[in-house]
Specification:
Layout lengths: L2 H13 L3 H10 L9 E3 L7 H4 L6 H23 L13 H10 L16 H8 L2 E7 L4 E7 L48 E6 L2 H6 L10 E9 L9 E5 L14 E3 L4 E6 L2 E7 L2 E6 L17 H8 L7 E5 L11 E4 L2 H7 L1 H4 L6 E7 L2 E9 L12 E7 L2 E7 L17 E6 L5 H7 L11 H16 L1 H15 L7 H13 L1 H5 L13 E3 L16 E3 L8 E6 L4 E7 L14 E6 L6 E2 L3 E6 L2 E6 L10 E9 L7 E10 L24 E3 L6 E5 L17 E7 L13 E7 L3 H9 L4 H29 L15 H12 L3 H9 L3 H6 L8
Helix pairs in contact: 17-18
């Protein structure tokens, strides 16, 4: 084949959108059916065992390709500065590299190293160097990821782009991908044959400055990767790539096809997928990529853009997305810049987020320090930015795993009302290497199950449960929803109380230590004051209600966490600012060598910083621990230091009936609190058809009951978890209830009472059983990031819907059974 024929073959493979077309091209050239021209990917015959164990979801696999393109751009800039990326003179972090190469000042990595500080025009300009183009059909789209990074020579491709073993980026400090594995995760999602196309050319400047002799340095190299079925006697498939150049009869290690060309159209231009030429770079095409969310315009709410935003929440460099399929719409519907969900939310904070959000919290778990950024969306907004993700865990701006939004419905969290409005991003970039391995799978798309994860989840539960801003938002939403219905529930409450007291069995569902309180009958101890205006840097940071320098002394129960409140005048995001960020450290100072505390969380909201501290696991009653809490940043002449002395006290009794209940926090704690007043009964509200779609669970004519958790089951000890508070919502337009109303001889008021109270009792029984199950297991087995099993609220909703057809007939029929009928063998339900 001539140079032009090889080039034309390369372009025809690039332009193809169906795998059958790719096979046709390769068959026409005589390549497809000649195994000797195909080389094992990574030169491993058993490579499926590695490649098949990558990302479990297509979106996560695609992200790895984009991350590799970002790395290639940064390494290209390093090379062109005359510095090998592994050199000690190279940048020490991703953000330092971005600040140096795209803003000219590595010292400003905290600001200019984050694209959120860039103007829109600059983001768009840089984004043109990394693009993702969607082509082909709506149902089976193909995606082309192109970058103007360092590129590779044809001879180096087998040990870079097509390898599994060489640790090409292991010693480069400013890149994300280091182990040369994540990029293979896309293979399994590429059509039936798992076809992928790669074309690349090394930057001529790098080739010229390179000291190595590579005769292919001026060529473009390209190949096709495919999956071959297991041959006879082999248990697994194998991935191979086309490598016919220089093939020798007794070896399968040929080189990839190559050709010379000054430039190649690998970049999209508007809606033309290959309309812009480049002199070097890499383009990778994924044929017929399988993913439900990709079968729509990339820019739509359920399209690729929103998935990439959440998986790359703080991406190091912007990416340009091009929708080149035949969708209709205005010009802005087909091209946009991907900057990550954090940047998008900051850019449009007023439109998307509740006031005073986002906020940040610090946490220490297992001796590892992390920062959590909490976003609270306005109603109906969150679906634009996330699906099932409730908490995402990031490393250098890439999501490595998540917890589902059912996390907020845990009894220990109590934010089920807001589970469709909260997103938390936990920055794990500073974890130690060992901790990172313990927390994340090698595929970098999901969490492992282990001790560190359990400790982190526990600290997050406390952060969310006690977060003053989230608690205020939950109360605000609750009041907006039921304020107009306050008077409606009083007769129901009185009647239900009478029913419960009339039956020992029914009382057992409710009374012994199990609080199902009316969540709206509360009064706030301290009303919300004028909107808080924090300062960029604190002028004070001290224990609440005490002068600076006061040594705070407390007694802490050995089985409980200590809660300490600080007062300050700093902004809410002080500990997560990009510039002159605040630092909080907590150390034990009286046990020989100064040691850090392994487990705590710190919420900062509107001038109150609440420290939630776990005493050392090995402590004993009477032991005294002296702590020093330090707050500092680069602008403070001296850090703020506060000394705390805690004496370990006796275990607090937590089981119902074991002793006096713990007193509520005093004013010394400096926090707002609520005191329940009135009777402890469920808050019962009615729902009619006009409000069906407004509910958390969308009602229909078959729905019966929805419960919403309004407060957490407070305390670390599960057996003290009987404090959860729920509201009950009854569907008064249930079709079976309305049918009985028309046909029954009973008074409608009696039928309404039977219908309502039976549903409430069923809901209460299910809640009680859920608590019993957890107590019997001694420890709550919460859902993992991959587990989407129903929550308690889901179970109650579906169970009561299933029972609603038989509730009233069952009550009527069983109520008519008498001793006389049983003795006579009469039919149940016969009239007298």
């Amino acid at each position: 084949m001539t140079n032009e024929e090889i080039k034309e073959m390369c372009l025809s493979l690039l332009y193809a959108d169906e795998e059958n077309k790719v096979v046709e091209i390769l068959e026409d050239k005589g390549f497809w059916d000649k195994p000797e021209l195909w080389r094992y990917y990574g030169d491993k015959e058993d490579n499926y065992s590695t490649i098949g164990n990558q990302q479990s979801r297509p979106e996560g696999a695609l992200v790895e390709k984009i991350v590799n393109s970002v790395d290639a751009i940064l390494m290209n800039e390093c090379w062109t500065q005359g510095i090998p990326p592994e050199d000690s003179r190279a940048p020490k972090s991703i953000h330092e590299a971005v600040a140096l190469y795209f803003a000219g000042d590595a010292r400003k990595y905290e600001t200019l190293g984050h694209i959120g500080y860039w103007v829109t025009q600059k983001r768009t300009e840089v984004a043109r160097r990394i693009t993702v183009a969607a082509t082909g059909s709506h149902e089976n789209p193909s995606f082309t990821i192109s970058d103007m990074g360092e590129g590779q020579t044809p001879d180096s491709m087998p040990v870079t782009l097509l390898d599994l073993n060489h640790k090409n980026k292991l010693r480069i400090q400013f890149v994300q991908g280091k182990f040369n594995m994540g990029g293979t995760g896309v293979f399994r999602f590429c059509g039936r044959r798992n076809l992928q196309f790669i074309v690349s050319r090394r930057n001529p400047i790098i080739v010229k400055e390179s000291k190595t002799m590579d005769e292919s340095g001026s060529y473009w190299g390209f190949t096709i990767i495919r999956r071959e079925d297991p041959p006879a006697g082999i248990r697994s498939s194998v991935y191979t790539y086309l490598a016919p150049v220089g093939i020798v009869h007794d070896t399968s290690k040929g080189g990839v096809l190559r050709f010379k060309s000054n430039e190649l159209p690998i970049f999209p231009d508007g809606r033309k997928p290959y309309g812009r030429k480049a002199e070097w770079g890499t383009s990778i095409k994924l044929y017929e990529y399988v993913a439900t969310s990709f079968r729509t315009n990339m820019m739509r709410r359920d399209g690729l853009l929103s998935r990439l935003d959440i998986l790359l929440p703080e991406i190091a460099l912007p990416i340009r997305l091009h929708e080149c399929r035949d969708y209709r719409g205005h010009p802005g519907s087909f091209e946009t810049t991907l900057s990550g969900v954090s940047v998008r939310l900051e850019d449009n904070k007023a439109e998307n987020l509740e006031e005073e959000f986002p906020t940040t919290s610090s946490l220490m778990a297992g001796g590892e320090k992390m920062t959590a950024k909490i976003y609270a969306f306005k109603k109906g907004i969150s679906e634009t930015y996330r699906k099932n993700e409730g908490i995402i865990f990031t490393v250098n701006g890439q999501t490595h795993g998540h917890l589902p939004n059912s996390f907020y419905s845990r009894k220990s969290v109590g934010m089920g009302r807001l589970d469709d409005s909260i997103l938390i991003s936990v920055d794990c970039s500073n974890l130690s290497g060992r901790a990172r391995e313990d927390l994340f799978m090698n595929s970098r798309d999901r969490l492992t199950n282990g001790d560190l994860r359990e400790k982190i989840e526990h600290e997050l539960e406390i952060i969310v449960r006690d977060h003053p801003g989230l608690k205020q938002l939950r109360e605000k939403r609750k009041r907006e929803e039921i304020e107009s219905k306050i008077g409606d529930s009083k007769p129901l409450e009185d009647a239900l109380e009478s029913i419960l007291r009339s039956s020992p069995s029914l009382s057992s569902l409710f009374l012994p230590g199990f609080r199902l309180a009316n969540p709206f009958k509360t009064k706030e101890v301290l009303e919300k004051e004028a909107r808080y205006q924090g300062k960029p840097h604190p002028t004070y940071f001290k224990f609440a209600r005490y002068p600076y320098g006061h040594i705070l002394k407390r007694i802490g129960a050995i089985n409980m966490r200590c809660r300490i409140a600080f007062e300050t005048d700093v902004v809410n995001d002080y500990f997560d600012k990009l510039e002159n960020k605040g630092k909080f450290t907590l150390q034990i100072t009286n046990k020989g060598e100064t040691g850090k505390v392994c487990s705590y969380s710190l919420n900062l909201q509107n001038g109150i910083a609440t420290l939630n501290l776990r005493l050392p696991e090995t402590c004993s009653i009477g032991e005294v621990f002296e702590y020093e809490a330090t707050v500092s940043d680069e602008t403070l002449l001296e850090p703020f230091k506060n000394r705390l002395i805690i004496q370990v006290g006796s275990a607090q009794k937590t089981k119902p009936g074991e002793g006096e209940r713990k007193k509520p926090p005093t004013s010394e704690d400096g926090d707002k609190r609520e005191k329940p007043v009135g009777i402890s009964l469920p808050d019962i509200k009615e729902v009619y058809e006009q409000d069906w779609e407004k509910r958390k669970h969308t009602f229909d004519k078959y729905s019966a009951l929805e419960i919403v958790q309004e407060e957490a089951a407070i305390d670390d000890n599960l057996e003290n978890g009987h404090n959860a508070v729920y509201s009950f919502w009854i569907n008064m337009d249930n079709i079976y209830y309305k049918t009985e109303l028309k046909a029954s001889k009973f008074d409608p008021g009696i039928l309404k009472a039977r219908y309502t109270f039976s549903l409430v009792l069923i809901g209460m029984a299910l809640i009680q059983e859920d608590f019993k199950t957890d107590i019997d297991k001694k420890k709550v087995k919460e859902r993992s990031d991959e587990d989407e099993s129903p929550t308690l609220e889901d179970t109650v909703f579906s169970t009561t819907a299933a029972l609603s057809p038989i509730l009233l007939p069952l009550i009527d029929t069983l109520g008519s059974i008498t001793e006389e009928k049983i003795a006579k063998g009469g039919q149940v339900g016969d009239d007298e």
